[in-house]
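FIELD: query
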Amino acid sequence: MVGLPCNDRALLAQGSSGSSVVIDLEDVVGLWLHDLEDEGSDSKSSRASTQDASSSPTYPFLSSAEVKLEPTSTSIPTSSGSTNVQLPIGGLRSLHPPVPYDAFLPPPSQGPSALPQVTAALVSHLPSEPERSRYLKAFRETMLLHPSFNVPNFEQRIAAIFAWAEGGAVSLCNGPMSKVELARDIFFSSAKNASNSKRDHGRPPGPPPGSRGPDQSAPKPTLSFFAAACAAFALGALVARDEEPSSAAPSSSSPPSSQSPSDAAGTSATLFALSEQALQLFEKTAAYDLDSVMTMVLQVLFMLHEGQMSVAQNVFPLVGKMVNVARMMGLAIDPDDFPGTYNLFEAETRRRLWWEVFYFDLFVADCMGHTPLIADNSHTTKVPADVDEEKFTPSSTSLPVPESAESDTSSVYFGLKCR
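FIELD: result
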C-alpha cells in the first residue's frame, strides 16, 4: 500500500470484484457488536440474516459460525459439593504435623548460628522399649528381601544413637572387635586416656560429664542417619502392625497432638513424617552421603508397604530424585576405579545402594509405563558380593563368605536379583 498512511488500527478489506478498501477497526467492532445484538434478540432471525449476509458480497467477513463474547455457564464444569474426595496421597491419615523445629536445635551455649542437628530431645521421639525391639525385629525380617546395606551394622548404629542420647559414648565400629581394632585400642587408648586425665585434672568433683545428657565430646550422629533410623522404625512399625492386628500398638489414624512424644513415637506415619523432616533439614545444611541415599531407599520401601501412597504422586518422584542423587555421588562408577579411596565395607555398601536404586528405577518405571532413567550401558558398578552379614563389619579386610547354606543368605538373593 504505497502512498497510504500507516495505521495499525485499520483493516484492509477486499471485495469480490477485486477492489479493496481500508476499514477502521472501530467500525469492524461496531459491525460485530451489531450482529451479536441481533443474534441475542432473535437467534433464528439472526441465523437467517447471517446466512443471507454471508452470501452477499457486501459483508464477506460474516459467516454462519456462532460467536460468544464469553463462556456461558454451561461450558464451565460445576463444582461438586460432595466431601467424598479421594486424596492422591492416601488420605489425611498419612499427614502428620512435623516435630517442632526447636527439637533440632542444640543448646544455646553453642551459639545462635548453630545448624540443625540430632539432639536428645529429637531422639526422644523415637520408640522406646519394648516397641523398639519389636519394630527392629520386623524391620530385620523385611530387609531380608532388600539387603541394600548391612542390617546388623545398621542396628548397632541405631543402638549407638540411644547410647549417645543417654550420655554414653557412641561406638561407630560395629560388630566384634577385630585384631586391628584390638591392637589400636591397646596401643593408643592408654595415651588418649592419659591426655584426658591431664585435661580433666583439677576439675571439681561431681557427676561425670554427659551422665545427664549427650556426651558432647563423643561424635554426634548425623541427621541423614537419624532420618534413616526413623524410616526403619516406621517400616518396622508398619510390618509389626500388619502381623499383629490385635496388638495394642497405637493406630496411625489417631491425632498426634493429643499424645506425648513417647506415645506418638509408636505410630508408623509419625515416624515417616519425622524421617522426611530430618532428611529435608539435612539436605539444606549438608552434602549428600550414603546415609541419605539409604534413607530414600527406606522411604520408598515404606510407601510400597503402606499401600495408601500413590505411586505416581509419591514413589515415582522420590525414585527419580534418588537416581539423580546416586549419580551425583558417583555410585554409578565402581569403587575399584578409585583405588585407595574406599575401604572394603564402604565399597560394598556403595555397590548395594546403587543396585537397589537401579532395581527401584526399573520397577517403578514399569509400573508407570515409562522407560527407566538408568540405561544398561551407563554404569560400571559391579554386582555386590555374597558375604556373611554377621561377620562383615567396617573393619573387615576380606569378604567373609557364608560358611553354609543355613546361614544368612539374603545377600545371595540380592545378588541374584541384581543379575
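FIELD: remark
The chain has 13 helices and two strands.
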